[in-house]
Structures are given as structure tokens and as C-alpha cells.
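Postdoc handover notes: sequence design on the structure in folder B. Input C-alpha cells:
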């Protein structure tokens, strides 16, 4: 990956247990235009509170991130740990403390082992000479089974630049304004106001359109830094270059979001839920999320059972405007119900064949208007229960 002006490092700090890298650093050579979105949960981790306070300036130069400990529900000690680790890294880098973003993921309610951070930080800073973005992607994994990465190369004014991102997440996934953790970097020069709006739009159509288990984390964070070191003409709203950047950013975030769903804890299916014909887009999303989060629907997907009635039931309690006499439902191109009525036994047999695929689409038309929404989800398996029953052991 050819991206200018960023360095990376990852080390083992034994934050939860030894044997894997769990502390990582991303550093821009210069202060970068930055934006971030965070969990909307009322219970927020210390690093979220600290980073949200700092990002209001619209500038960041480095990110410190750990796995193995969420530093959430840890009181004053947790905030002290977030500030102290930030101070130590900023001091080692020779940058202003306020330019450092802090992020954590892992077990909630356990105090952060500050001494382990302190011992690991010198090696973390020294490791920037040989570290890679892939190293960071691996260091932030918890129950993930693979690192999640994506990038796009583009041009602005004849100058090449790159948009690249990483993400982690497999459980506690139904974000609102972010996902568990995702970090996007670009060497493009981008107008700050345009970057903020484009970033939020891309998050809404990607990370805000996925669900694995309906649970939002205390630590959800999505951050972008644009350091301008590609030396392209500044990308601003309303230009052809802006549209290219918007497309690239949206594609990177959507790819990362889909990777999270495909790696959902215990998941065996990747399902795209499309709802159309709603009174407006907001109603369509209500219906789509109700389907995607229904335990009954998700277990039917796992069992490859074309139990379409569970989907209509979810639509009915979603809060969206519904006329059951107008509802239609398809699994891929197989019509399961039309105008609220079952399409018959042959349709059920064909629908069950669709559900045997690892990836398929559910189309629901409410028949009321032009509103539409798409969300992405997984099934609910025995393995999901096993993973989360044993998570802390």
C-alpha cells in the first residue's frame, strides 16, 4: 500500500494475556485534518470521552489503540489511565498531547494495567520504522477471526492519493454513528468541512447499516485522518474530484462493514436485507433492522428454514407504517409471499434452497411509497452462544 506520511507500530503489552500483539500506534508525519464518530450509548468508555473531547478541534496526528481491555466503566482511574498513556506516547513522539486520539477494545469493567502500557510504550514508538498497517489491524482484533482491511487509489488534479482503512468487530455489533473500531487514513488534501460531511455520509451507509447481534458497544469509534502529503489540490465539495473521493471513501467503509458481518461471532450466513416501498427511508430502515435483529429470523437463517412468517412478524412490530395486504417478500428472486399471502409449497422449497447459500438477499416491499433501506446481517448459531458464554475465560 502506497500511502504517504504515515507510520505504524504494534507490540505485545500483555494487556489481557501474553502471546499476541495488543497495543498499536498510527502516526502522521504532520497534523492531519480529522473527524470521528463515536458510540451513542449513554455508557461510554474513557478513551471515547477523551477522544471525543479532542476531535472537536478537527485535527489529529496520532492514534494509540489497544485490545484486551475496553477501559469502560472504570471510573476516574480509567480516565487517568487514558490521559497518562496518551501523555507518555505524545511525549515520546514529540507532539502535543491534544493531537493524540486514544481507543480501546476488550473486556468492560476491568481496570487498565497502566504499568504494562508504560513498559511497552518505548518499543511501540521505536517500532514505527518497520511496522505496517496490517500489524495494526491484527493488534486490534479480539474475537475477530481475520484482520479487516481495504484501500482505494485515486487521483485529484493529476496527483495520486490513497484511501485506506482497517476495522475490528465480530460481536456487540449494531453501531449508531460508528462500529466497534475503524480507522481510516488518506494522504489526500481534503477540505475539513467536506471531509466531515462525506465521512458521516459514508458511515451512515456502511457501519450504521450492519448488525450482528443488536448490541452496541461502549467503545464504538470510527476515525479518519487526512494528512495532505500526496500534495494534491485540496478536494472540496461540488467538484469532480470530490465525487471520486466520496466514492472511494464509501467503498472502503462499506467493504470493512461487510467484512465485520461476515466475521460475525459464529456466523455461517451473510444476509443483505433490502426494504423498499416504505413511506420514507427512515421507516424502511426501521423495518430492515427489525428483520436483521430478530433472533427468530436469524435462527431460521441458520437452520436454512424458509420461515417467511417470522420476517412479516418483525416488519409488523418494527414501528414502520405497514399494510399487511400490500406486503411482498422474496429470497433472492424467489417470491415467498405476495400481497400478504403465502406463495405456496413450491416457493417454500425453492426458498429453502436459497437459504442454503452462504450469501443471499431478502427483499421486502411494503407497497406504500418510495422509501428504501439496505442493511447487512448474519445468522445466529450455536457457536455465537459458545463464544460469548466463554468470552472472559
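Designed sequence:
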Amino acid at each position: 500500500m502506497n500511502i504517504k506520511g504515515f507510520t505504524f507500530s504494534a507490540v505485545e503489552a500483555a494487556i489481557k494475556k501474553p502471546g499476541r500483539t495488543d497495543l498499536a500506534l498510527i502516526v502522521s508525519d504532520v497534523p492531519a485534518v480529522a473527524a470521528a464518530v463515536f458510540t451513542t450509548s449513554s455508557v461510554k468508555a474513557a478513551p471515547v470521552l477523551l477522544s471525543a473531547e479532542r476531535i472537536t478541534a478537527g485535527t489529529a496526528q496520532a492514534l494509540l489503540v489497544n485490545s484486551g481491555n475496553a477501559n469502560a466503566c472504570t471510573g476516574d482511574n480509567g480516565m487517568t489511565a487514558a490521559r497518562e498513556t496518551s501523555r507518555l506516547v505524545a511525549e515520546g513522539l514529540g507532539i502535543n498531547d491534544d493531537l493524540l486520539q486514544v481507543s480501546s477494545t476488550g473486556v468492560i469493567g476491568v481496570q487498565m494495567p497502566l504499568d504494562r502500557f508504560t513498559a511497552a510504550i518505548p518499543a511501540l514508538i521505536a517500532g514505527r520504522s518497520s511496522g505496517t498497517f496490517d500489524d495494526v489491524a491484527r493488534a486490534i482484533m479480539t474475537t475477530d477471526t481475520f484482520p479487516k482491511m481495504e484501500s482505494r487509489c485515486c487521483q485529484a488534479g493529476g496527483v495520486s492519493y490513497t484511501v485506506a482503512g482497517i476495522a475490528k468487530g465480530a460481536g456487540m455489533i449494531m453501531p449508531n454513528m460508528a462500529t466497534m473500531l475503524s480507522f481510516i487514513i488518506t494522504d489526500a488534501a481534503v477540505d475539513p468541512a467536506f471531509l466531515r460531511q462525506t465521512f458521516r455520509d459514508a458511515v451512515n451507509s456502511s457501519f450504521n447499516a450492519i448488525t450482528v447481534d443488536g448490541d452496541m458497544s461502549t467503545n464504538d469509534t470510527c476515525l479518519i485522518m487526512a494528512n495532505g502529503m500526496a500534495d494534491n489540490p485540496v478536494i472540496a465539495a461540488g467538484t469532480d474530484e470530490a465525487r471520486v473521493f466520496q466514492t472511494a471513501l464509501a467503498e472502503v467503509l462499506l467493504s470493512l462493514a461487510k467484512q465485520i458481518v461476515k466475521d460475525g461471532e459464529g456466523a455461517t450466513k451473510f444476509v443483505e436485507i433490502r426494504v423498499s416501498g416504505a413511506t420514507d427511508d427512515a421507516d424502511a430502515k426501521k423495518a430492515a433492522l427489525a428483520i436483521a435483529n430478530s433472533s427468530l429470523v436469524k435462527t431460521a437463517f441458520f437452520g436454512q428454514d424458509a420461515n417467511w412468517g417470522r420476517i412479516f412478524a418483525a416488519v409488523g412490530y418494527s414501528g414502520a407504517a405497514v399494510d399487511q395486504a400490500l406486503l411482498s417478500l422474496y429470497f433472492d428472486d424467489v417470491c415467498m409471499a405476495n400481497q400478504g399471502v403465502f406463495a405456496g409449497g413450491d416457493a417454500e422449497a425453492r426458498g429453502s434452497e436459497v437459504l442454503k447459500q452462504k450469501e443471499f438477499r431478502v427483499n421486502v416491499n411494503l407497497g406504500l411509497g418510495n422509501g428504501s433501506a439496505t442493511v447487512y446481517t448474519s445468522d445466529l448459531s450455536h457457536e455465537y452462544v459458545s463464544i460469548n458464554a466463554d468470552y472472559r475465560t
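Context for whoever picks this up: The mean pLDDT is 92. Don't rerun without checking with the PI first.
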